[in-house]
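Forwarding the complex inputs:
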Amino acid sequence: MAVDALAPARPVAADQQPAAGLVRVVFFVAAAAGLLRVLAQFFPRVVAAELAFVSLFAESLPFLLAGALLANVLRTRVGQEILTAAARRPRLAGALAPFAGLGLPLCDCGLLPIARTMRNRGLDRAVNGFLSGAPLTNPIVIVTTWLAFPHSPGIVASRVGCGFVIAAVVGAVVAGPHPRRLADPGHDHDGQPGWLGGVATELSRTAPALAVGAALAATIKAAIPTSALTSLDHQPLLGAAAMMLLAFVMSICSQADAFVAAALPVGTLPRLAFMVLGPVFDLRLAVLYRREFGLRWVLSYGAVVVPVVLVAVTVCATAGLT
Amino acid sequence: MNRNGRLVAAVLALAFGVAVLTGRANLLVRPWFATVFLVSAALLVLVAIRVKADITPRAAAAILLPVAVGVTLTPTLANHATSDAALTTAPASRIGDGSNPLVAGRGGNVTLLQILQAEQAVGGVLLAGRPVQVDAIVAGPHELERSVIVCCAADAQRVAVDEEGPVLAPKGHWVRVTGHLASVGTKTVIAATTVTSISTPADPFL
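Prediction (whole assembly, two chains):
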């Protein structure tokens, strides 16, 4: 299931989908859920994985749909003019991309539909800056970080500042995702409302990958106890790397991770590393990005993001900015 | 959407709606997120009714699997949301948290999280003597715990408070403890006067 769900979407005509296909879907889903229930009787960690799987999917899907709705703005006349102007000045567009997060009250997965629209218009470099910067510069992240660390404005500033630094480096170093002009998801063949068409496309195209990403993250998180990683805090850099691994695996929403970080029994540097990497690159996002932009782009993106995050947060912590 | 696509959208909408109406959403996310679920359900209903798009059977299966798993989950399973040890630092006040009666100088029906947050805010000595009633899971002969979520069950963390007084029910059982707060060394504990077993609440997470 996972492989096919992540493969490039192939249109399937209604007449090619017999009722047997639907029966197979229902049978598979029921059997898988039943099998998990049985396994949970013997392995309590399966319950933790189940809860994490369902909750990650249920919590992320609304933001994905909201992102699809917001991406419709880019299909309006004003949006098209902005994209056209940006395509004429790709370097400037790449530099300004992380600032777009300031006007987007969305979590990290909600940014994907917007990034896809940018990519389809040839703004491939801007996509890099957008995906690596906007998740840390958006108002939800800023406000929740402030609420979680009310007496540490340096933490808030460092988190946002790291977003701009990471976006600059990723935008300069990583090749943009391969431009691929797809059918406009906002266009509906029967003349139905285009803004709903974008949501439907997101549901059929990205939601399966979201389910696979949530399942992977939930499974690995259940297998690795958080305490095994937090215990590495005796050495700050090692602790930071461990917390980045935890953030990658947990794949929790960027509107919540600051509260989780605040309660982790680790120092400031590992906490900041946890909060900076998570919204920019986690397992759930890696699966979504792989689905959309390809494995090669995800690997090159991750290979740059991870060390840059570690360096950026270390500089912030050692310079006393936190 | 084609027939399968419309069905998937409709089932997801139904799942979001039913989860909120039955309280099952409390097993997955914080209560304030119910509004987001309802808005999503409304949007998905519109998609199911008005839009045509394609979806492969396997993609449909991937989307519907979390729904099917969610149907099988029950509040009693929330005890297993995390296998990690209890936090030593209580999470900060979260979005949607009301005022903490203990910080405001009162007592009454409180949560373990509110006790720990109040201890961090005003210190255990000031809390000593306050009458409290808490619902919690038994973690040991004299230890109570609850799982706390910030956003969804994937970020579940344990908080624990010691109890003084009657030996609690067997580990994993839900109890309602009535008594008052006491300060023992650097820790705030609940000096219990009564401990009664209760059934698993519909909203097992704090």
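The CA atoms of residues 229 and 242 of chain A lie 5 Å apart.
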